[in-house]
Design a protein that fits this description.
Length: about 240
């Protein structure tokens, strides 16, 4: 191997390491924010009034689930760093339980920003056979963006629907924000980043988040789509085949 080939190999490995570190930093924000938010709520609400047993259990449950999610993300990223690939571990996932659990991790952020979180799941929505860690990362990215760019008084909704035409299912994250300019939207879907100073200041973080979502949905065997709703806001769709 020539010196040039060695340099190219080292350069590619360095780029992969940086990309993995960026992804890791991006993915751990949601569970860490939940840990900080709910522990702060417990500290704040404990005095001068006492928390009810139900409140203590509820806060502790979110902290516990967020800690478990954080651990699973760390294990997945460590495995990827060692093996050089993402290992998909599919299992049955009850979306009717999975959806409210992930929404609870954003409860503090939504409350602080005056945003209502909502979800609707079709009665005929089947049990998912997918990787729950990767699905959590996908939905976390979409929910984080939706909350970040939805104004006070707005709403973020998660939906689960059947797609009988394509023998699949659809998970939707929809917000009532300002939407994304068409040129920016096209750039994001191509893996690009926001370039204008105005949009960069408002949409910082969209590029990496959307690119990661698209890549992870593909790993799950699905397809990712994002568009502006006619009524305003953004609609992000995750299309997966039925098991």
């Amino acid at each position: 191997m020539t010196d040039v080939e060695v340099d190219n190999k080292n350069s590619n490995e360095a780029k992969k390491e940086k990309a993995l570190l960026r992804e890791f930093a991006h993915e751990i924000r949601t569970p860490l924010n939940a840990l900080l938010g709910f522990s702060a709520m417990m500290k704040k609400d404990a005095l001068p009034k006492s928390l009810s047993q139900e409140q203590v259990y509820d806060y502790a449950d979110v902290i516990n689930s967020s800690t478990r999610r954080l651990l699973m993300i760390c294990e997945r990223v460590l495995d990827e760093a060692i093996t050089g690939r993402v290992t998909i571990q599919k299992e049955d996932v009850d979306f009717s339980a999975f959806c409210p659990e992930i929404l609870r991790t954003f409860e503090v952020d939504a409350k602080d920003n005056g945003i209502t979180l909502n979800y609707t799941i079709a009665q005929d929505f089947p049990t998912l056979h997918t990787d729950p860690v990767v699905l959590y990362e996908v939905l976390s990215n979409l929910l984080s963006n939706a909350i970040k760019f939805t104004p006070k008084g707005g709403m973020v909704t998660v939906k689960g629907e059947r797609d009988y035409k394509n023998n699949g299912l659809i998970m939707i994250v929809q917000d009532t924000g300002a939407g994304i300019p068409t040129t920016i939207l096209m750039s994001l879907m191509k893996g690009g980043s926001v370039t204008t100073s105005y949009e960069h200041s408002r949409r910082k973080g969209w590029g990496q988040g959307i690119q990661l979502v698209s890549e992870k949905v593909a790993l799950l065997g699905g397809k990712f789509e994002i568009e502006n709703a006619m009524s305003g806001g953004t609609v992000a769709c995750i299309r997966l085949p039925c098991a």
